[in-house]
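If you are new to this repository, start here. Below is one unmodified record pulled from the training split, so you can see the exact layout before writing a loader.
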Amino acid sequence: MKVLAALLLILPAAAQSQFDHFQRDLKRAGSELRISDLRAAVVEAGRVVWQYGAGPIEAPAPDEPVIAERLERQAERGRISLDDPVQLPAGATIRQVLANTADGTPGEEVLENRAFFDALKPIAGSAPMPNAVKFATKPAEPHESLGWFTQEYAGERILWAYGPRVLLVKLPARNEVLIVSANSNALTEAARLQDGNIARSTVVLAWLGKSERDELIDHALIALYFGNRDASVALARQALNKFPELESTPDVTLLYLFAQLGLPETQASATAVIRDHPSLPTAWFYYGQYLENGKRYREAAACFEKITMHQPPWHDWTVAAAKKELTYLKTY
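And here is the target side for that same chain:
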């Protein structure tokens, strides 16, 4: 606590003003997500330059960057090689697993599978996770990416990681990190961050800069998360009418949204996602759900079988879910 207190600065009004719009949008996002205790801080060059909410952030850092930090330390000591193969998926290296990218087989599975990180924990060690703020204040290496999701947004490289109730978003070019914590899983679940797109978070979008297209989709996801299907359909339809290219955008979270809402654009979305990421099991599962809900049972079964029969076997949450759906489909 003393270390954190020492980091916090009293900013002059001129410096504080740059965060005024972000603070307003952050408050609005917290209200929409029904988060009663939302806290945020911005770290710049290793020091906290702005904070929001009642009290300091004391959430633990997410697993991924912490595991990466320990593995890098072991690699520096010559105990392991980041290019050594790991148990899952077959043929993947530690470096591939920690990169959290979805740009090729078998790395695509990494976006969804907590088992990969669990498999790395014995290698990484069992030391407790550091505080999220303390972790974010550490100097970043120019090449740093291990253990973080990597993404380009509005021409800027973003590194990010998350836990159930904490988000870390790093902008290497600016040497800035946004840290957000909440007392609700809605912070990360409403945006479906397990699908690998940080732009689906209204909280983060408020910091990166608003995009009407992404904002409409993000609000549609939130409405769906809280069970307001009609509002979600209206927002998704508004986004599609204004930005028709959305239906052919290879974004698995968009595929999830369209499939859940039963929109006809699901077909084009699934084609785009599966074309770019043919080994992403969630894409097959979301599309299979859409087909099943449309009573296209034979096609749905083919999607679920793609998941359960894949070689080498997928180790994703969708495997058990697909098996359950296949059992159900046998009754037809």
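Two things worth knowing about this chain: Residues 63-124 form one domain. Residues 1-15 have pLDDT under 50 and may be disordered.
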